C-alpha cells in the first residue's frame, strides 16, 4: 500500500547544483590565476613560433611585438592583445594567435602585398586595403591611383575592370585618377594618356579598345587621346611624328 504522506522536497535541484559547481570552478580558477598558481612563473611561455610567407617583416620583429602581452604566461596571456600588438606592425595585414601546449604560442601572419599606390603616401594591398609603410617610395612597378578619399573604393574597383578591359589588347594601367569634379584620367604603361571624363567611362574606354589596333598600325605615336566626344575622339601625337595640334576622329 502506497504511503499517502507527501515526499520531502529536494533542497537543491540538479540544475541548481550544476550551476553552483560551474561557478565555483570559475571562482577557484580566477583565484588561482590571481594568486599566481598558474601565472607566468609557474607556466611561462618559452617559444613564440611564427608562421607565414614573410618578405617585409622579420620573425624577430613579430616576436618583439608579441613579447609584452605574452610575458604573462601560458594561461595569463591575452591572445587578443598579442594579436593587436602584432597587427600594429606596418606590413602585417592580419595575425592569428593560439596556445600550443605546454609553453608556446603559435603565431600565423599574413603580410600586405602592395599592388598599387594610393595618393601620396598610401598603398593598396592585394585585398584592396590601404596601408602606409616607411620606405615604400622606393618600390617600383606599382600603378598610381588617386582621387578623393571618399571615392577610394570606386577608384580601386574601376582600376580592376579597366585592367580587364585592356588586357585583350596587351596594355596595362600605369595611373588612374579621378578629380573633385568626377572626371577620370587614365595613363597606360606606354605613357599614353586617355581623357575619359565624367560620364559613360566604360563605353569611352571601349571606344579606345576598338581603335587601338588602327592607331598602332598608323606608325605615329599618340601621347594623349580625348574620348569625351559623343561619337569620336581627339588625338595629340608626339611632336616628332605629326604636325602640331589635335586630329579629330
Outline of the structure:
This protein has 249 residues and is of the alpha/beta class. It is built from five helices and 13 strands. The N and C termini lie far apart (112 Å).
Please provide a written account of the structure:
The protein is an alpha/beta fold. It has two domains: 47-111, membrane protein fhac (Ubiquitin-like (UB roll), Roll); 115-248, Rossmann fold (3-Layer(aba) Sandwich), CATH 3.40.50. The protein is 31% helix and 26% strand. The chain is built from five helices and 13 strands. It has helices at residues 14-35, 59-70, 79-87, 152-167, 201-217; strands spanning 47-51, 92-100, 104-111, 114-118, 122-125, 130-131, 143-146, 173-178, 184-188, 193-197, 222-226, 234-237, 246-248. The strands form two sheets. A ten-stranded mixed sheet has the order 6-5-4-7-8-9-10-11-12-13, with helices on one face. It is elongated. Mean pLDDT is 86; it is low at 241-245.
Sheet having the most strands: 10 strands, mixed
Helix amount = 25-40%
The tally of strands reads 13
Q: In CATH, what is the class of the largest domain? A: Alpha Beta
The CATH fourth-level homologous superfamily of the largest domain: Cell division protein FtsQ/DivIB
The rough form would be described as elongated
Assign the CATH topology of the largest domain: Rossmann fold
Radius of gyration: 32 Å
- The total number of structural domains is 2
- Order of helices and strands, N to C? HEHHEEEEEEHEEEHEEE
Protein structure class = alpha/beta
Strand order of the largest sheet: 6-5-4-7-8-9-10-11-12-13
Question: What's the end-to-end separation, in Å?
Answer: 112 Å
- What is the beta-strand fraction? 25-35%
Number of helices: 5
Average pLDDT across residues? 86
- Enumerate the spans where pLDDT stays under 50 for 5 or more consecutive residues: 241-245
Amino acid at each position: 500500500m502506497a504511503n499517502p504522506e507527501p515526499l520531502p522536497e529536494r533542497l537543491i535541484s540538479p540544475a541548481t547544483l550544476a550551476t553552483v559547481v560551474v561557478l565555483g570552478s570559475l571562482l577557484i580558477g580566477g583565484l588561482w590565476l590571481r594568486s599566481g598558481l598558474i601565472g607566468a612563473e609557474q607556466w611561462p611561455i618559452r617559444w613564440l613560433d611564427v608562421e607565414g610567407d614573410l618578405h617585409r617583416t622579420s620573425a624577430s620583429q613579430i616576436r618583439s611585438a608579441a613579447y609584452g602581452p605574452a610575458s604573462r604566461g601560458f594561461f595569463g596571456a591575452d591572445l587578443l592583445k598579442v594579436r593587436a600588438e602584432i597587427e600594429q606592425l606596418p606590413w602585417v595585414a592580419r595575425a592569428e594567435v593560439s596556445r600550443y601546449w605546454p609553453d608556446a604560442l603559435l603565431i600565423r601572419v599574413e603580410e600586405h602585398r602592395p599592388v598599387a599606390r594610393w595618393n601620396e603616401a598610401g598603398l593598396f594591398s592585394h585585398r584592396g586595403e590601404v596601408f602606409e609603410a616607411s620606405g615604400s617610395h622606393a618600390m617600383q612597378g606599382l600603378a598610381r591611383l588617386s582621387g578623393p578619399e571618399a571615392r577610394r573604393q570606386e577608384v580601386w574597383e574601376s582600376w580592376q575592370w579597366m585592367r580587364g578591359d585592356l588586357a585583350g589588347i596587351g596594355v596595362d594601367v600605369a595611373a588612374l585618377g579621378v578629380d573633385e569634379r568626377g572626371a577620370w584620367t587614365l595613363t597606360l604603361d606606354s605613357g599614353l594618356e586617355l581623357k575619359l571624363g565624367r560620364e559613360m567611362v566604360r563605353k569611352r574606354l571601349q571606344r579606345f579598345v576598338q581603335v587601338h589596333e588602327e592607331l598602332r598600325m598608323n606608325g605615329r605615336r599618340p601621347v594623349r587621346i580625348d574620348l569625351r566626344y559623343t561619337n569620336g575622339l581627339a588625338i595629340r601625337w608626339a611632336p616628332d611624328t605629326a604636325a602640331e595640334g589635335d586630329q579629330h576622329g
